[in-house]
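Re: [ENG-882] Designed sequences occasionally contain unexpected residues at chain ends

Forwarding the minimal case from QA. Structure tokens:
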């Protein structure tokens, strides 16, 4: 899978730009705040339908402009394709020039794995960071997953609204059972997806991490969820009903899922060094890369946002060993020469790509 051409108009700090990418390693270099990450963001949006930096589409449109678009021509093992995203008052998504009604119809067309310096927060930050990591990975392989997750979150919002109505308007408490049944149905489906992929991550993670650390570290992953069993989850919702009414929100469910990484049997979030955090994230992302390959029979596009600067020589070497036959798009502040690898460089200056394919 690879992106052949990217076209953007009025996107972030760009007026208009068209870039022809190489099938292998592409380096976007330039000083900070010139627009390098914006290019990666536009690709990510065409993959996932949303940004990794903001939830507000208006922020993606160039200042003083009313609309924007991103257009990508890509090729995978089966066909050539086109994705176009139009941003204005409403986001419009087109796949091969056909307007899509659901986000799930976009997912799986362009698959990406992204590294950013902020990825260390996947382990250091709150559980929502780890759930987002799972959601991005699973939805690319199983597009229906995002549809089920959307149904769950919509039901959760409705239940939370009704909890507050019970508290402040003395509504009938027994009507919560309508939402409880739906939460259990959707939550258990999401759990099965997540649990399956945690198991696949675990199998890859053990091997990759041992390679990176020269067999010095043993890594494990443990998944926590309230939704393993439908009957138990329904019972839990009923047991916590009074507390949920007091708090005004649902305190248990798939929206509280989490996973923990252990290195040599110690929780890396608590006891891990900065280097161990970086190594664990590198192992996680390389596992994601290989899982997508196993599922789809081709590698996703690898997006590296100023990530090479975060790696020491050994980790960089291990990463480079895993990017053969993969399209890679890298951002960095200076031209990057990678040992034994051919690179194509693009100089980004103030929202313009000046030197292309050099």
């Amino acid at each position: 899978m690879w992106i052949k051409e990217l076209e953007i108009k009025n996107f972030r700090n760009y007026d208009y730009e068209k870039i022809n990418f190489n099938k292998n390693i592409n380096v976007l270099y330039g000083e900070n705040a010139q627009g390098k990450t914006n290019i990666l963001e536009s690709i990510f949006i065409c993959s996932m339908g949303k940004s990794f930096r903001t939830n507000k589409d208006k922020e993606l449109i160039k200042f003083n402009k009313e609309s924007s678009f991103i257009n990508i021509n890509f090729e995978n093992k089966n066909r050539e394709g086109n994705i176009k995203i139009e941003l204005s008052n409403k986001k419009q998504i087109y796949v091969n020039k056909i307007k899509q009604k659901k986000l799930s119809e976009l997912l799986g067309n362009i698959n990406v794995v992204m590294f950013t310096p902020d990825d260390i927060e996947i382990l250091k930050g709150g559980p929502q960071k780890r759930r987002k990591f799972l959601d991005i990975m699973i939805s690319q392989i199983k597009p229906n997953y995002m549809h089920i997750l959307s149904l769950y979150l919509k039901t959760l919002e409705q239940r939370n609204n009704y909890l507050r109505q019970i508290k402040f308007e003395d509504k009938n408490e027994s009507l919560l059972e309508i939402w409880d049944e739906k939460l259990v149905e959707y939550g258990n489906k999401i759990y099965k997806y997540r649990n399956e992929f945690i198991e696949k991550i675990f199998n890859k993670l053990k091997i990759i991490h041992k390679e990176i650390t020269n067999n010095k570290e043993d890594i494990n992953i443990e998944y926590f969820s309230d939704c393993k069993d439908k009957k138990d989850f329904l019972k839990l919702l009923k047991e916590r009903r009074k507390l949920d009414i007091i708090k005004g929100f649902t305190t248990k469910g798939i929206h509280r899922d989490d996973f923990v990484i252990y290195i040599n049997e110690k929780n890396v979030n608590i006891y891990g060094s900065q280097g161990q955090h970086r190594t664990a994230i590198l192992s996680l992302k390389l596992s994601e890369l290989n899982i997508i390959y196993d599922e789809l029979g081709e590698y996703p596009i690898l997006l590296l946002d100023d990530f090479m600067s975060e790696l020491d020589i050994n980790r960089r070497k291990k990463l480079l060993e895993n990017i053969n036959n993969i399209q890679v798009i890298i951002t960095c502040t200076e031209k990057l020469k990678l040992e034994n690898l051919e690179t194509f460089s693009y100089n980004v200056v103030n929202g313009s790509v000046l030197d292309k394919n050099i």
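QA comment: On inspection the terminal residues look reasonable. Residues 79 and 330 are 25 Å apart (CA to CA). Proposing we downgrade this to a documentation issue.
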